[in-house]
């Protein structure tokens, strides 16, 4: 299996044949002795690609060394690590800058990283981060960021280092310094004991908390950088905010969310949604949107208690600002049905209390006017403020999937992030329609249904809709127009679907549908499937007499299957589709899913570069190269498992959109990430709606009228002799 190549060493180069079936150590030894007359041990040398400087190892040997490939014989990672570690101890700024610059590249290689760590290089790198500035600091931070892409070596960085990086992130303004500093904190935040993406689990929110508190401007700096002109810095800052939201512990959850509200993070993110953004930033924006839904769900599930000072204070302020006399009870006067408000508000929990209190705080005079106006009306004509606020919160939760805590939206919902403002406007709309309908207490469900209809209309095209447009639709559209539209909707759907028990049923069935689809998608991974590839190895038939002739060894198919413990993706390559036994015995190769940090849709840089040429970089975890031979292949059916921003663990080219949807959504659901497929989101919606309609068959009775009074005979007649027989209705009698 000899392959002709050109090998460069120092200032010379030779044409020779390399047997790719041999271990890399033996190939290097042969080159040193036979081609360059080097007497030193082969362990001191390594082979790299001349063009990309990529290290040749046993894992990538067959994929990287092609016919007429250009290679170079250089110092091994052992020597390179020793040289760089020595230079990192230099007092010469120029030497230090060059060493850290080279370190950024070499430390990505696990062979170099292992030697670097053995020589205590991590301590030197941390010292440089603590004491350097400018480009040297930027290179050192990037080197640390790249080191943290490995699954070992950074288990115990210490509080002083964490505090230093956070200090750098806050006080430095150079983009090339802030980018890697932010990326380092992201890695630390996600490396907690519950992490599914990191092999190291010794950090997390609690470890970072003290260092973040020591820098009072830390969070405000992150929020400011969401408006940065630098795309990567903006994207990294949002990614860090998401990581902190996702990994914040229960102990710090309330204070962290309060701080996010004070810094108006949601407003900053909503502004980003209205701007121009690439795929990476879009992914982070959708994740923030999903995390906010989970946050709101947790608030909704948090029960209001008079034993919690903040809860009690909000309720008392709602009463005191109403400016009404307390004689004869107080809570009914502001719209509760009883004098025990906490029980009524449990339906929407702390989220409902916060919205109600927010309505009052936004305009106290208007709040007092609203309460007084209703108080002065006859009891049957009053629109109860508290009940209205609770109902509106429920309507919004239903619309935005807050009631389930899951969202499958693949489009931006900036108005969701303005939840309190939408609540305020919708409550005002509720009172307006109540007045225009001249409603009574018994008409409350009808007004609610009308508001729901208008809310759905006003939130159409939400991704591009501005708040003032929503306000205009809710507060200025004539009652007759709203009513006519609702009547048309009722022609298409039963009004039963808008009732509270049915809304609760839909929320439960949505959760069940999501879990059902999740299990189905993961089951697809457990069953496994074929993906087409083409791997080519060139073998000269006769290196002297048949120069230029070659045999093509094609393995056109790869079979993937998820391991039963859901921790590894097993695979193997085959020249044609064949029977694969159950289990993983036929699939010796595997990918550790704890290394996966992202699922990238569309062609990866490696796939893009392989159309006509070998890929530039691919992870050591793959033993087979993937070369696309069809230039017309639809890019929409391509996706990759990523380990860090630059390393592709494996790439998939689905045969059709069904397979693409099953595997991308299955992997995303396995990692508890957002689904990408609109078809899957629609599938979950359809399952939910079918479930609702099936359940409602027991409630609606197909609209058959059931008589209120049924006459039952006092004594059943006896048929037959001996007093035995049956009683039945004879239709012919």
UniProtKB/TrEMBL annotation:
<dbReference type="InterPro" id="IPR011993">
    <property type="entry name" value="PH-like_dom_sf"/>
</dbReference>
<dbReference type="InterPro" id="IPR024574">
    <property type="entry name" value="ELMO_ARM"/>
</dbReference>
<dbReference type="GO" id="GO:0007015">
    <property type="term" value="P:actin filament organization"/>
</dbReference>
<dbReference type="GO" id="GO:0048870">
    <property type="term" value="P:cell motility"/>
</dbReference>
<dbReference type="InterPro" id="IPR011989">
    <property type="entry name" value="ARM-like"/>
</dbReference>
<dbReference type="GO" id="GO:0017124">
    <property type="term" value="F:SH3 domain binding"/>
</dbReference>
<dbReference type="InterPro" id="IPR001849">
    <property type="entry name" value="PH_domain"/>
</dbReference>
<dbReference type="GO" id="GO:0005886">
    <property type="term" value="C:plasma membrane"/>
</dbReference>
<dbReference type="Pfam" id="PF04727">
    <property type="entry name" value="ELMO_CED12"/>
</dbReference>
<dbReference type="GO" id="GO:0006915">
    <property type="term" value="P:apoptotic process"/>
</dbReference>
<feature type="domain" description="ELMO">
    <location>
        <begin position="310"/>
        <end position="459"/>
    </location>
</feature>
<keyword id="KW-0729">SH3-binding</keyword>
<dbReference type="Pfam" id="PF16457">
    <property type="entry name" value="PH_12"/>
</dbReference>
<comment type="function">
    <text>Involved in cytoskeletal rearrangements required for phagocytosis of apoptotic cells and cell motility. Acts in association with DOCK1 and CRK. Was initially proposed to be required in complex with DOCK1 to activate Rac Rho small GTPases. May enhance the guanine nucleotide exchange factor (GEF) activity of DOCK1.</text>
</comment>
<dbReference type="InterPro" id="IPR006816">
    <property type="entry name" value="ELMO_dom"/>
</dbReference>
<protein>
    <recommendedName>
        <fullName>ELMO domain-containing protein</fullName>
    </recommendedName>
</protein>
<keyword id="KW-0581">Phagocytosis</keyword>
<dbReference type="Pfam" id="PF11841">
    <property type="entry name" value="ELMO_ARM"/>
</dbReference>
<dbReference type="InterPro" id="IPR050868">
    <property type="entry name" value="ELMO_domain-containing"/>
</dbReference>
<dbReference type="InterPro" id="IPR016024">
    <property type="entry name" value="ARM-type_fold"/>
</dbReference>
<keyword id="KW-0053">Apoptosis</keyword>
């Amino acid at each position: 299996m000899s392959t002709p190549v050109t090998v460069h060493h120092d200032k010379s180069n030779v044409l020779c044949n390399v047997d790719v079936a041999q271990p890399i150590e033996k190939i290097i030894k042969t080159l040193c002795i036979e081609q360059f007359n080097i007497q030193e041990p082969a362990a001191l040398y390594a082979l790299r690609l001349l063009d990309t400087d990529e290290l040749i190892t046993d894992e990538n040997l067959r994929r990287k060394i092609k016919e007429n490939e250009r290679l170079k014989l250089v110092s091994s990672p052992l020597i390179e690590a020793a040289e760089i570690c020595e230079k990192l101890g230099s007092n010469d700024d120029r030497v230090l800058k060059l060493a850290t610059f080279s370190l950024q590249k070499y430390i990505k290689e696990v062979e170099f990283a292992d030697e670097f760590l053995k020589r205590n290089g991590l301590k030197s790198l941390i010292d440089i981060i603590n004491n350097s500035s400018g480009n040297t600091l930027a290179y050192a931070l990037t080197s640390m960021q790249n080191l943290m892409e490995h699954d070992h070596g950074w288990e115990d960085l210490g509080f002083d280092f964490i505090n230093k990086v956070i200090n750098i992130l806050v006080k430095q303004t150079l983009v090339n310094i802030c980018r890697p500093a932010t990326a380092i904190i992201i890695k630390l935040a996600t490396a907690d004991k519950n992490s599914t993406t990191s092999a190291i689990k010794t950090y997390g929110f609690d470890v970072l908390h003290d260092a973040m508190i020591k820098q009072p401007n830390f969070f405000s700096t992150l929020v400011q950088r969401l408006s940065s002109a630098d795309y990567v810095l903006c994207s990294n800052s949002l990614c860090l905010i998401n990581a902190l939201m996702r990994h914040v512990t229960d102990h710090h959850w309330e204070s962290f969310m309060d701080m996010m509200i004070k810094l108006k993070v949601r407003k900053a993110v909503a502004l980003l949604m209205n701007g121009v953004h690439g795929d990476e930033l879009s992914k982070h924006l959708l994740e923030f949107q999903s995390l906010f839904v989970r946050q709101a769900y947790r608030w909704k599930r948090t029960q209001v208690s008079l034993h919690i000072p903040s809860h009690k204070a909000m309720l008392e302020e709602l009463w005191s600002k109403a400016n009404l006399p307390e004689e004869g009870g107080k809570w009914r006067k502001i719209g509760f049905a009883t004098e025990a408000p906490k029980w009524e508000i449990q339906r929407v929990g702390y989220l409902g209390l916060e919205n109600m209190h927010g309505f009052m705080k936004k305009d106290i005079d208007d709040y007092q006017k609203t309460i007084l106006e209703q108080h002065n009306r006859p009891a049957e004509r009053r629109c109860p403020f508290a009940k209205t606020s609770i109902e509106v919160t429920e309507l919004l939760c239903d619309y935005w999937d807050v009631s389930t805590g899951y969202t499958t939206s693949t489009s931006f919902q900036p108005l969701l992030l303005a939840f309190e403002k939408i609540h305020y406007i919708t409550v005002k709309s509720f009172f307006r329609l109540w007045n225009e309908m001249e409603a009574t207490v018994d008409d409350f469900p009808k007004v609610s249904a009308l508001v729901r209809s208008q809310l759905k209309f006003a939130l159409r095209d939400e991704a591009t809709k501005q708040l003032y447009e929503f306000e205009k639709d809710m507060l200025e559209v004539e009652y007759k127009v709203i009513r006519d539209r609702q009547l048309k909707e009722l022609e298409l759907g039963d009004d039963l679907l808008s009732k509270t028990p049915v809304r609760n049923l839909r929320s439960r069935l949505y959760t069940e549908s999501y879990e059902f689809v999740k299990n189905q998608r993961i089951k697809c991974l457990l069953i496994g499937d074929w993906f087409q590839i083409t791997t080519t190895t060139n073998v000269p038939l006769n290196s002297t007499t048949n120069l230029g002739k070659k045999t093509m060894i094609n393995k056109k198919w790869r079979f993937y299957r998820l391991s039963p413990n859901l921790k590894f993706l097993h695979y193997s390559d085959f020249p044609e589709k064949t029977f694969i036994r159950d289990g993983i015995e036929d699939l010796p190769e595997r990918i550790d899913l704890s290394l996966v940090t992202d699922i990238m849709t569309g062609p990866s840089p490696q796939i893009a570069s392989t159309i006509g040429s070998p890929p530039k970089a691919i992870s050591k975890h793959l033993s087979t190269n993937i070369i696309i031979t069809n230039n017309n292949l639809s890019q929409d059916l391509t996706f990759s498992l990523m380990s860090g921003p630059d390393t592709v663990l494996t790439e998939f080219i689905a045969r059709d959109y069904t397979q693409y949807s099953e595997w991308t959504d299955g992997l995303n659901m396995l990692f508890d990430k957002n689904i990408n497929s609109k078809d899957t989101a629609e599938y979950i919606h359809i399952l939910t709606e079918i479930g609702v309609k099936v359940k409602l068959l027991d409630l609606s009775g197909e609209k058959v009228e059931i008589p209120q009074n049924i006459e039952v005979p006092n004594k059943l007649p006896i048929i037959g002799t001996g007093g035995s027989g049956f009683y039945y209705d004879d239709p012919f009698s």
